[in-house]
Write a structure and sequence with these properties.
single chain, 90 residues, mainly alpha, 3 helices, elongated
């Protein structure tokens, strides 16, 4: 019986690690939002899931789902974007 409990704790810890590290940011924000509604501390959850402490529901008031950042301005005389040339061999 103890072995099953220990294995269950290890699996739960692995699932928590996976959720905090490898899930997309939008999903992590949604998890923080749902758990905050259930009464958990939003600041601690945001720190654990590595997200901003915000609403996360997509309402637009917190700025978490706003416009994408503008493209960086090119250096003096340099190209605006980096181009990778591909040489196709047939």
């Amino acid at each position: 019986m103890w072995q099953q409990i220990i294995v269950g704790l290890i699996v739960a810890a692995a699932l928590l690690h996976f959720c905090t590290k490898y899930l997309p940011a939008a999903w992590r924000r949604q998890i923080v939002f749902v758990l905050t509604k259930r009464g958990f501390n939003q600041d601690k959850l945001a720190k654990l899931f590595k997200t901003e402490s915000s609403c996360g529901d997509g309402c637009g008031s917190c700025g978490s789902c706003g416009d994408a950042p503008a493209e960086e301005k090119p250096a003096e005389g340099g190209p605006a974007r980096r181009v990778i040339k591909l040489h196709v061999q047939r």
